[in-house]
Amino acid sequence: MKSKFLPTIILVLVFSACTVAEPATTFATPLSEDVQSQPYLHATQTAAVEETQAAEDDSAQATPTSETSLPPEDWMEWPVVPEVTDTAREIYRKGLAMGNNTHAFSKVGDCQNVRQSFLGFFDHPGKYEGMSGIGDMQDTINNFKGYFDRDGQATQYGFNAAAVLSPLWADPDVCLPDENPLECELRITRPTFVLISLEFWFAGRTPEVYERYMRQIIEYTMAQGAVPILATKADNVEKDYSLNLTTAKLAAEYDLPLWNWWAAAQPLGDHGIDPYRDGFHISVAAWNVRSKTFLQTLDHLWKGLKDMQ
């Protein structure tokens, strides 16, 4: 299958924030309990428990608001949990007609989105029930069972917006010839929702280049009948928040939901950033808050759309 995307760079350079790893073991269908990863390093049971619990109490207030009329330039004031947009409804309806899996979501992401530190424990009953406010979202956890503790083909250490569009990064044991990781993941999973969270800033690339790659990712995802969920990032390694602004502009232009993780991270110590590392990675105490606020987002969007079935 010949790639439908504009040519991407021949070699994707990856710097220190996300280290390169071997392609992760991937699954087109949910995993059984005995072969899933160990859940989430028990972040709420570590020394970080007090900060994590306090952050959960704050994030419990991250409920959806009425659809914001704030411009992208005011993205810091956007709610953590977005409303369902008209375009999201159209895409979801298209996905149903295409036969997409209403029990599946995919991730397009970097090292901040791997299952060991993001979402994985929601596939392990007994590991998350102590988090405040989770009970109201149990229906959503049940509906997407098997897809939380899964990375798929489009999430990997070292990925950025260019890498997911490059066939060089596709797993040849799973993907078709000339298929890039994004195409591969959406083909084998047929999700109804796709989180796009490519936070890693790679040196020498401008926000304009990031935007160009993001447009390709967004438009391909929409064409496959999957609702893109865009996301802000907690860090500001580029020094001017230009990537978050770019993401907000794209969300407004395409009328797509945006999960404002940056806003959710602000009440946390060091605003969710690990002070002992590189200014990019979030702290262990922030892991559960990040997972919970995305679950809130998925819960709100799914419940707003599922009756269309």
From TrEMBL:
Keywords associated with the record = Signal
Domain of life where this protein originates: Bacteria
Location of the region described as Disordered in the Swiss-Prot/TrEMBL record: 50-74
What PROSITE patterns does the record point to?
A: PROKAR_LIPOPROTEIN
Signal peptide start and end residues:
1-21
Keyword check for ATP-binding, yes or no: no
Question: What name appears for this protein in its UniProt entry?
Answer: GDSL-like lipase/acylhydrolase family protein
Organism listed in the record: Pelolinea submarina
Lineage summary: Bacteria, Bacillati, Chloroflexota, Anaerolineae, Anaerolineales
